[in-house]
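Schema walk-through. Below, the input block comes first and the output block second. Nothing else is stored per chain. Lengths vary across the set, and this one has 205 residues.
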Amino acid sequence: MSDFINENMILIPIVILSIAFILLDIFYMELEKFNLGVRHLVNKTRVVEIKKFMIFTHKYNDFIPASTQIVVFSMILGFLWRDWARGMFLASGIAVQTTIVTITKSIVVRARPPHLTAHKIMTSGSYPSGHSAATMSMALLVPAFLSVYAPLWICSIVFAYLFINAIVTAYGRLYLDMHWATDIVGGWILSVITFLVVNYLVILK
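--- output ---
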């Protein structure tokens, strides 16, 4: 009985975070002041010279490039270390997460910020940020899976690169007027849920 409880303790934070993910949308109007405050801060401190780089972060972490990165790492796990299971869990986890993002956007249909500095017009819902969810999920999952086979220093470098990429990408969503701050937070919450669920499934296999 105690072993069962210990194995399933991870479900508690998953449930709590899932509730937080839902509440973040329900209380959107109550958080409007926060969103507008962050938007004002970004507008006030925006550096025009880095706009091309911010656009690059959008394209680099868009669906096809991001999917390619995930497939490549999954193949590395499979071919190099014969760990096809973890590779499959990684790819499937991100795929399910992307589906959840797409469904949530279509249900919530939250309006995006005014596209004053956007390089393209986005018509899909704003909540949550798919780019933020995907990049942070990669930053959490890839080093965790890699740690089984690679030394700590390599995992640390990979984590640092992916985490910085996630943070810069999130800022880029704000810089380019693509998302509100709560969209970013919602994406990050979803990424932690994805990380916990995937690890839970790896433990069960």
